[in-house]
Amino acid sequence: MFKRLYVSAVSACFEFRNKNPYYSPRKYKVFLNGQPVGGERDANVFSLFDLEPDTEYTVTTTADHTTVVFRTLAETAVIDVKALGAKGDGVSDDTYFVQMAIDSCPKGGRVLLSGGSFLVRPIVLKSDITLEIKKDAELLGDIKEENYPYVPARTYINGKEEVLATWEGEPFDCHQSFVSAYRQSNIRIVGEGAINGNADKSTWWATPKGRKVARPRLVFLNKCQNVSFHGVTCKNSASWNLHPFFSKNLAFYDLRIQNPYTGPNTDGLDPESCDKVDIVGCVFSVGDDCCAIKSGKLYMGRTYKTPANRHTLRNNLFQDGHGAIVLGSEMSGGVRNLTVCQCVFKHTDRGLRIKSRRGRGKDGIIDGVVFENIKMDNVMTPLVINMYYFCDPDGHTEKVWSRDPSTPVDEGTPYLGKFLFRDIECVNCECMAGYFDGLVERPIKEVTIENVSFSFKPDAKPSRPAMLEYVREYCKAGLYVDNVECLNLKNVTFEGVEGEKIIKHNCAKVTES
What we know:
Elements: E1 2-7, E2 12-16, E3 23-32, E4 35-43, E5 45-48, E6 56-61, E7 67-71, E8 78-80, H1 81-84, E9 89-93, H2 95-104, E10 109-113, E11 116-120, E12 123-124, E13 129-133, E14 137-141, E15 150-151, E16 154-157, E17 160-163, E18 166-167, E19 170-171, E20 174-175, E21 179-182, E22 185-190, E23 194-196, E24 219-222, E25 225-230, E26 233-235, E27 242-245, E28 248-253, E29 256-258, E30 275-280, E31 283-285, E32 291-293, H3 298-304, E33 308-314, E34 317-328, E35 335-355, E36 365-377, E37 381-386, H4 398-401, E38 415-416, E39 418-429, E40 432-437, E41 444-456, E42 477-482, E43 484-495, E44 502-505, E45 509-512
Parallel strand pairs: 8-10, 9-11, 10-13, 11-14, 12-21, 13-22, 14-23, 21-24, 22-25, 23-26, 24-27, 25-28, 26-29, 28-30, 29-31, 30-33, 31-34, 32-34, 33-35, 34-35, 35-36, 35-37, 36-38, 36-39, 37-40, 39-41, 40-42, 41-43, 42-44, 43-45
Antiparallel strand pairs: 1-2, 2-5, 3-4, 3-6, 6-7, 15-20, 16-17, 18-19
């Protein structure tokens, strides 16, 4: 059966309730009020667009006998940016008209982009509106760096710090993001069109490092709530594509997030210190991590103590990226209540990847994490927990890589609790099945791997399983486990491993069945 997942004034999203990762058991067709909509579909999540506001609809499919009746939301107004003067020719500067439409849109109204490529400088969203980007439209970014204003890292309001801009987990001066919102709520971005940062035609990627003012994100949501994205394609970002920051009640449904593999730091979706985030039915293909769950570096974690909390990722397709789903390395505020299920990973360097290091702080607690019902194909190393990640200016120093057993637990020592990896199939692996490397002074509390299978490509090539100092290359290796207090292995199978299937060091308790 399928159920309604999301509805706006002009769109709706549905999800089949089965156990198949991302893809439905068989192809199917969708009928709206008895009429076919589109061709055959093969994903567990499907969407309908170009609906009328405040209208009742009936949906059926050829996959089962379920009938879902729903009503679209009412709206107060529609403002077409072309009616205000926007050209939509991809050449004329349409910033004034698009921003004017947003600013003048009444509460409960919709700003409409259709039939063109709307070239704009950075725009700012406001509360209580819907931005609809039709299938034949795109919001296209200006390629001139000077047209992206400088945003200071912080300001002070009545003596209290307010962080306005960040880079990789710390307050940092930044160019204004292409689309942004600050302390706004009840925003919807819907449609089959694109938010195109146009960075592939700019100079952003030519000089990615060493900037005094960081590159902009495609979309930056700072302290917002009740924001939803449905259907749109996000692509060609100067750095991270979607970056929600200290925001809550966020939903991302049936999106396409695309950047070339060569685009530096072009993560797909990185919620940072956010609460209640749903990511469902999305497809990722990017130049860095597909989805990275973050909560800041030491200053932010220690000052604001705001974890990434209540995140659910379900029925997503991750393909072509460094890591499919990543925790950290900016995790100083902690990560709690994370569930990842029914996802497919293809052609990523690593699959489920946790990365941290000394110096992330005592508030950097990751616990209660569940990864289950996942299929991986051509993922070099499917499972990785790396507590010696060599990020930051001091990343290659002894402080980070030391294995000295006398290293003290201090204010800078993070904590990794319980991790469950269950019902996972990994085929065409190359480097190794899994790499779990806890701190010598504070081992990972517990790792359970249950009903998980690994098989390797016959022509696999050697590589390094994780980014840390002094790790060697592996090829067709099994599970490497070091500094894990409790290791539980239940029905874990290997095919094509060369050498030991399980390499254990410093594990106080090991159960195998």
